[in-house]
Write a structure and sequence with these properties.
Low-confidence stretches: none
Structural class: alpha+beta
Number of strands: 15
CATH class of the largest domain: Mainly Beta
Number of helices: 4
CATH topology of the largest domain: Immunoglobulin-like
Radius of gyration: 29 Å
Shape: extended
Number of domains: 2
Distance between the termini: 76 Å
Oligomer: single chain
Length: 282
């Protein structure tokens, strides 16, 4: 940036120069390349393509979990989801930069994602469901036998806890999503205990062939209803999260492998060290 010391002072843009003034001193700087003349670096172009792939994946997640997003998500949920999908795809191999797919990165980063940033599911229920995934067949979800007072942290006017589950199989390459939902699990809070429950859901429709490459995500929500059946719409008392997110390839769950960090050898210091002299207390 150049400093102007002459009598004539300009402000604004002239040609490709921008004239400004700060604290009584005038400056002139290059406006930079024009839009059509600006060439992104190769790295920036590749990052842009990866970003596009992550946002396409995010759109499919919106489609799969649309009912939950409508009922329990907060206003900033989409920004948080955008951040985690970008982070996930960027864990994919550097050699694939610019061509990375959602399944090239760590889809497990979506596990634990909370739909409501105001409160998390763990603040409202005292246990996690047990989930068993058979990649070639179905998904089983189980809740244990527990005392109601240990199971839920409900508002004082709540009569029932309502749990909803949604299992989604995402076929990102095809841009498709298959989902399955059991009926709502309504648990009366006036009882002493909950006996436990299990449900099994198919991964795809019976007429659909299960592909070799896809992602399974299981999400749940918790809400409370008053005695008249109306849902209590206090943002501190409804929540939802992704319970599990796994990548399936060739009929098996694939655990993402991060590259081994390069270990640096610490140099051995060659120092002259002073010796301790023990005191003679005798």
């Amino acid at each position: 940036m150049a400093i102007i010391r002459g009598v004539i002072r300009l402000k604004g843009k002239v040609g490709n120069l921008v004239f400004t003034e700060r604290n009584g001193t005038a400056y002139a700087k290059d406006a930079g390349p024009k839009g059509d003349d600006y060439d992104l670096s190769e790295g920036s172009k590749k990052s842009g393509k990866d970003f596009g792939a992550s946002q396409t994946g995010r759109g499919l997640l919106h489609q799969g979990f649309k009912p939950f997003i409508k009922t329990v998500a907060d206003a900033r949920m989409d920004n948080r989801l955008k951040s985690v999908t970008i982070k996930g795809i960027n864990t994919g191999p550097v050699t694939l930069q610019g061509k990375r797919k959602v399944t090239d990165g760590d889809v497990g980063l979506l596990k634990g994602f909370e739909f409501n940033g105001e409160t998390c599911v763990g603040n409202l229920i005292g246990c996690l469901p047990l989930i068993d995934i058979d990649p070639k067949s179905n998904i089983t979800i189980g809740l244990p036998n527990m005392r109601i007072e240990d199971l839920f942290f409900a508002p004082g006017d709540a009569a029932d806890a309502i749990l909803q589950f949604r299992c989604c199989s995402f076929f990102f390459d095809e841009g498709l999503c298959y989902f399955a939902m059991p009926e709502d699990l309504v648990i009366p809070l006036g009882k002493a205990s909950f006996p436990g429950a299990d449900v099994s859901l198919a991964i795809t429709e019976e007429t659909t062939e299960i592909p070799d490459d896809y992602v399974i995500m299981i999400a749940w929500t918790i809400q409370f209803a008053a005695a008249d059946g109306g849902i209590i719409r206090d943002k501190q008392y409804y929540a939802g999260s992704i319970l599990q997110s796994v990548y399936i390839k060739d009929g098996k769950i694939v655990v993402f492998q991060y590259p081994e960090p390069v270990k640096k050898e610490m140099p051995v210091e060659d120092l002259n060290r002073a010796a301790w002299k023990m005191r003679d207390n005798g």
